[in-house]
Every structure is written in structure tokens, then in C-alpha cells.
Amino acid sequence: MRSSKMLDQDFAFSDAPPQIAVQRLFELSEAELRETVNACARAYLSESPLHPKGAGGSMAWMEGTKVIRSVMIPKGWKIENPGNQPRVVSPDGKHAITVICGDEHTGNPTRTPMTRNKKGRQTSQGVSYNVKQTELFPVSREELQRYAPHGDQTLWILLFYVDKAAGEVRYELSRPINMSETEKVDDWEPRFIMPSLKLGDNIDPQGPEPSSDIDIPVIPRS
User: Fold this and answer.
1) Please, what sign has the CA dihedral across residues 182, 144, 157, 203?
2) How far is CA 187 from CA 59, 88, 122, 143, 161, in A?
3) Quick count: other Cβ atoms within 10 Å of Cβ 110?
4) pLDDT in tens, 145-201
């Protein structure tokens, strides 16, 4: 299996069609991303009046995390949970993907989305490292906030938003580079924005068929 070499390639592919960029950078197909986001949407829409308020977003995050891990583990990626933030990490340990709910601007190329909720220390450390890499490959932006560096792992966020009014799910796989004063990620570079999914046509309420057992590699806590 080829190793990940994305520190400069993420910028080299930033102008490529997002489906091609994600496939080449992560060996992650558009169909596999759709599978993950479909799982998020199913879980989100399963929220009932009996659930606690906001349960839909939490269930979507948990289900999306499970599916992206099930997709990437057979490719040699591993589970990691730094500070209880669930990630799936590339074979060389240089890149991590985590699933997070975004706001209504998610998937909109003319607007800049934010994470729905405040993010903690692990995200801020990931942003810090991403910013360092961006400084090597400059990207225009007005303002950055700096945090203590954390290792040499690039953090990517699979950001999704279920828009019931529009009947669609918008999503993107993007690299966070700034956090606001309210502790939400509010800037990204590059952004790999995928085509939105229509809720009625693409969301199977019964969910996918159970997958076969897979060996789950977990990176132990240091």
C-alpha cells in the first residue's frame, strides 16, 4: 500500500474536482463518502420527540464516525481517540479524519461554514499544525489564531449539514485552519466540496446491509 504524502499534495490537488482530489489523496471514493454521509443523515432523521434535544446531531456524528472507520480500516487506517475526539488515522500517522456537524453554509462554495458546536483542545491543536503547513504553502486569509503545535498530523474534517427544508445533505472534506473567539472552526483550506445528496432519493431509512467482521486496529494511548 502506498504511503500518504499529502503535505504539499493537498494544495496541488486543491484545484482538482473534489471527487478526484479525495480519491487520490485518501484513496476514498465518492461512493464511500456518500455511504458515510447517508449514515449521518439516517441517524439525524431518526431523532424523535422522545429523544433529548439535539440528539439527532449527536447520533449522526456517532454513526458517521463508525462508517468512515469501517471504510478506511481495510485500507490500513487506524482508530485513534486523542482527548476523546474520534479519528481515523492514515497508515503513516500523518493524516487524520474526524466527522463533525457543520452549519447551514456547509457545502456552499460561496460561503464559509463553521462547525455547529464549539471544539476543544484536540481540534485547536490540529488547526495549529494545519496553519504551520499553510504558511509553507501560503493561502490568502485575513486572520489566524495560533495554538500550541501538536505533533505532525494534519487534521481533516468531514463536515456535514442535514438541511430538512431543502431536502438535502451538504458535505465537504476540508482542512481547518482557524478557530473563532467562540471556539468554532471558521476557516478552511483546501475545501473539497462534494455534490449534495437529496434526502428522498439517497437516504435508505433501513440503513445499509451489515458488513462483515473486520479487524479493528486501535492506536494505544501514549
Assistant:
1) positive
2) 25, 22, 16, 9, 16
3) 5
4) 332 334 578 899 999 999 999 999 999 999 998 877 777 898 998 899 999 999 975
Residue 97: which H helix or E strand, with range?
A: strand 95-101
Three-class DSSP category at 68:
helix
Residue 205 gets which letter from DSSP? T
pTM: 0.75
Q: How far apart are CA 65 and CA 62, in angstroms?
A: 5
Contact 66, 35 (CB under 8 A): no
Asked if residues 3 and 92 have their Cβ atoms less than 8 Å apart, the reply is yes
> What gap in Å lies between CA 123 and CA 125, rounded to an integer?
5
Question: Which three three-digit cell numbers place residue 150?
Answer: 501538536
Domain boundaries, the chain: 9-202
Per the CB < 8 A criterion, the answer to whether 212 and 222 are in contact is no
- Distance between CA atoms of 148 and 168, rounded to whole angstroms? 38
User: Angle at CA 55, nearest 5°, toward 80 and 183?
Assistant: 60
